[in-house]
């Protein structure tokens, strides 16, 4: 039996101290972290960006196939992905936790081990939070802050006609990872002796369980001296993110099916699950890639980045949101089955 320490045994303050002891400060502009009534931040003249994401057990995650450590890492990645989408550098997080009595000190430790690994990965400081009991299940609220020089801040609605529309990485993988894990859960529920059948699914499963916020790209943009003209992170699927960029800018967009990046493993998994790989890429959520536009002038610099694909361009036809198929047919991204609006 694994050791189980009730949270009541150490108390809320004991738990917080126990958590805080495992974290070291990384950011110069964190003046004060955990321990007082609030954290104190000093952005030194930069713009501060801040955002929150709420995660509820049974709605946003399933502990049936999500190890707590992965969940901790993932919730940090998810909230930081929005910081990346503003072209900002992440710096601090705070966490609100609702814990039912199902959770022991050891399980909270596992969650925080993932959070700590993410803090190391992204060089952010955990500067506070709140801990409370929940009648049922686990609730996690993650808030993040980041900084950005005023002239590098990138919003959703600032593209210009003919700007090149690009995406990082590849799309649809996280959804195929989810399908693989869901299938294994069903198999396991019907026969607990069955071995998991995740062979050939390691990439898609990792994309579901351990997504990465693309700060490698944010640093790359700075190194290349490029500021995207608009940007959003891909949490709900490519089609819906493009529609957001269009709605915010009042512009149209035209993308090309042949350019949409889909990994081979995603392609094979989609075929196996009877899903069209294209639909997985356009509608599958949780990839946390960046969807952004750059001026024609800056595009040659961006083109050098291996992990960036140009998929189309912005148009001055306000209501156009279309995809040119390999067959040359033109389909509407707002059509049912494509972009959720
Ligand atoms: P208060 O009574 O002022 O709300 P708390 O006892 O809730 O204070 O928190 C004490 C300190 O511990 C604060 O700095 C708070 O931000 C931090 N904290 C509380 N819960 C957590 C948590 N789950 N993770 C990280 N820090 C936390
Ligand atoms: Mg509190």
Report what the structure shows.
Mg(2+) 3 binds at residues 37, 82, 233. Belongs to the thiamine-monophosphate kinase family. The chain is of the alpha+beta class. Helices cover 35% and strands 24% of the residues. It is built from ten helices and 13 strands. The protein has helices at residues 7-20, 68-84, 105-122, 173-190, 202-209, 215-224, 238-249, 264-272, 277-283, 299-303, and strands at 30-32, 40-41, 47-56, 89-99, 125-133, 138-148, 164-168, 230-234, 252-256, 289-294, 308-315, 321-324, 330-332. The strands form three sheets. The chain has a seven-stranded mixed β-sheet with strand order 8-10-7-11-9-12-13, with helices on both faces. It has a four-stranded mixed β-sheet with strand order 3-6-4-5. β4, α3 (105-122) and β5 (125-133) form a beta-alpha-beta unit. α2 packs parallel to α3. The longest helix has 18 residues, at 105-122. The chain starts with 6 loop residues before the first helix and ends in a 9-residue tail after the last strand. The mean pLDDT is 94. Bound molecules: adenosine-5'-diphosphate and magnesium ion. Residues 16, 19, 34-37, 95, 97, 126, 128-131 line the site of adenosine-5'-diphosphate.
């Amino acid at each position: 039996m694994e050791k189980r320490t009730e949270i009541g045994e150490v108390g809320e303050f004991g738990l917080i101290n126990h958590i805080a002891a495992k974290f070291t400060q990384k950011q110069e502009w964190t003046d004060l972290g955990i321990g007082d009534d609030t954290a104190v931040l000093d952005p030194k003249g930069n713009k501060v960006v801040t955002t929150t994401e709420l995660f509820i057990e049974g709605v946003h995650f399933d502990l049936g196939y999500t190890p707590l450590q992965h969940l901790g890492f993932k919730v940090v990645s998810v909230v930081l992905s929005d910081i990346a989408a503003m072209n900002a550098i992440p710096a601090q997080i705070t966490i609100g936790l609702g814990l039912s009595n199902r959770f022991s000190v050891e399980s909270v430790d596992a969650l925080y081990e993932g959070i700590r690994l993410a803090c190391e990965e992204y060089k952010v400081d955990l500067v506070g939070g709140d801990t409370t009991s929940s009648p049922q299940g686990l609730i996690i609220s993650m808030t993040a802050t980041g900084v950005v020089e005023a002239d590098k801040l990138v919003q959703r609605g600032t593209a210009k006609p003919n700007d090149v529309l690009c995406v990082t990485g590849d799309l649809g993988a996280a959804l195929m990872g989810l399908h693989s894990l869901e299938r294994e859960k069903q198999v396991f529920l019907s026969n607990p002796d069955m071995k998991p059948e995740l062979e050939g699914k390691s990439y898609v499963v990792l994309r579901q369980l351990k997504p990465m916020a693309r700060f490698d790209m944010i640093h790359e943009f700075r190194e290349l001296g490029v500021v995207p003209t608009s940007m959003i992170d891909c949490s709900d699927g490519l089609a819906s993110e493009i529609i957001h960029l269009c709605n915010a800018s009042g512009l149209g967009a035209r993308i090309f099916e042949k350019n949409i990046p889909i990994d081979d493993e995603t392609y094979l998994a989609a075929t196996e699950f009877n899903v069209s790989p294209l639909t997985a890429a356009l509608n599958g959520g949780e990839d946390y890639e960046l969807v952004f536009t750059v001026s024609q002038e800056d595009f040659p610099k961006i083109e050098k980045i291996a992990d960036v694909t140009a998929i189309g361009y912005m148009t001055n036809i306000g209501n156009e949101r279309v995809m040119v198929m390999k067959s040359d047919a033109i389909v509407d991204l707002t059509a049912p089955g494509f972009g959720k609006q």
